[in-house]
Amino acid sequence: MKRILSVVLALVMVLSLAACGQKDTAPAPSTNDPAAGTDAKPYEGQSLTVLYMSGVYADAARSMVDEFQEATGATVEVVDYPYLTLHEKALLDLTSGTGSYDVIDVASQWDGEFAPFMEPLDAYVERDNYDMSVWIENVLANCGEWQGTIVGIPNASTPQTFAYRTDLLPDGIPDTWEEYREALASVNDPANGVYGVTVSEVSGQLGGVFDYVLWSMGGNWADEDWNITIDSPETRAALEHLYAIKEYSDPSNLAWGVDESIQAFLDGRAAVCETWPSLGIVQNGDDAAKSKIAGKWALDVLPYAETGLTLLSAWDVSINAASENKDLAWEWVKMYTDYDMQNRFHDEFGILSPRKAFWDQDKMSNQTAVREALDTANMWWRIPASVEADTCINAAVGAYLSDQIGLEECVKQLSDGLTAALANNPPEAGIKNYNH
Hints:
By secondary structure, this protein is of the alpha/beta class. The protein has helices at residues 56-72, 83-96, 111-114, 122-127, 137-142, 177-187, 206-216, 233-244, 258-266, 281-284, 326-336, 339-349, 356-359, 368-373, 386-401, 407-424, and strands at 4-5, 47-53, 75-81, 103-107, 145-146, 149-150, 153-159, 162-165, 195-198, 270-273, 297-300, 312-319. The relative contact order is 0.20.
């Protein structure tokens, strides 16, 4: 069964935070609701610094600054960094207690690592009757809630999908990985400058590529009790698949990041792009000035394999526990995640909202497969070991695909690396691994 989606689909990338639990006082009663447009401006003269990933999230934040400043009287500075640098900058500020950033947009895979330094939001939610039931349950469970505490409000989520050329693959993405490789082979034509697929395989992106293939094949990193299970037939099959599609990829693919992979697809140099479409394809695919494939592309879900699971990208806006402007920061969080604001962010920046009602709109009616995928899409570990584990996977898989090591050595490095990551940062007692 084909699950072809509309070309107007907007997705957003790329991978909830835990409570500090040591706050003895509830937030002061709210004296101003910026979204309500009151005249009172109790935050006059205050300033707020918010930290976002470079690209659409930061762009959306900047588009809201004037409105927020007008409503609150406060000034706002939006700071942004690329994905990998964002983690470093945020973690340094959090662990030092500096409080340079009042609000931080957090990738959900960093949740457990950042959790001890973020402000629990339960008291704010209760005080303002903020309705948490509006969020897609699977997204909220992976992004915003941590160990029974609300430490972030979801603001973006998308399951990984593939963009493809409708003129080259009129039936869309095949249902199985074997059929997928056959389809790539049928359209691979490097002599005429067209490859079967472009994949962002630079370190930092390659791990996620491996994950969605592994999970769809029924594999995993570990069982629910954190016993490492990566040494498996599914892992070998996932690695062999990634090695096989090298034949249908530009030889430079291993060095390509998101921008290079997307540009190759827009330039007509690949039949399929596995990189997050919302980071350039959705915005530019039908712009003849920026794309050579205008009107000739669409999106589809991944081959099903054993589980049908795909990779979840989810982000939540959270408040730094060291912030001196927590009430003002909460007003920013509320406005940034407001229903109307999230609709605007979708229309202007292609950001997909995690709100259930967002998907009930007529404009989203042709994207039911994506909505359904959000109910099951998977995220890797959200404990402190997550970053080290992902780094290990990126390194080992990259070495295998570049012929530096063989298949069995790659599996060994994956197993040893994940074991070391857990040893260096053991999960807190009672935390189960839901990613299994």
